[in-house]
Amino acid sequence: MRRALPSSVLTGPAGEPRLVLPRPTHDTLVGAAFNQIRQNAGGSLLSSCT
């Protein structure tokens, strides 16, 4: 499943650019995903077996 990233430009009511946000890199997204996995696995049975 592929989804497009949201626009990095937020516009005002008249459509004019109001805020330009930096786009996350692939490494940033992967790092955030693995960080969530590590945090949630902290109390799991698998982590206490090692």
Descriptive tags:
50 residues; alpha+beta; 2 helices; 40% helix; 14% strand
Description:
This protein is α+β, with helices and mostly antiparallel strands. The chain contains two helices and two strands; from the N terminus they run ββαα. It has helices spanning 26-41, 45-48, and strands spanning 9-11, 17-20. The chain has a two-stranded antiparallel sheet with strand order 1-2. A hairpin with a 5-residue loop joins β1 (9-11) and β2 (17-20). The radius of gyration is 18 Å and the shape is elongated. The two termini are 34 Å apart. The mean pLDDT is 85.
Detail the topology: elements first, then pairings.
Layout: E1 9-11, E2 17-20, H1 26-41, H2 45-48
Antiparallel strand pairs: 1-2
Net shape: elongated
The main sheet orders its strands as 1-2
| Contiguous helical run count | 2
The value of Rg in angstroms is: 18 Å
How many strands, what sense, and barrel or not for the largest sheet? Answer: 2 strands, antiparallel
Summarize the amount of helix as a percent range: 40-55%
Number of strands: 2
Low-confidence stretches: none
Instruction: Determine the mean pLDDT.
Output: 85
Q: Secondary-structure element order, as H and E? A: EEHH
Structural class of the helix and strand makeup? alpha+beta
Q: Which percent range describes the beta-strand content?
A: 5-15%
**CA(first)-CA(last) distance:** 34 Å
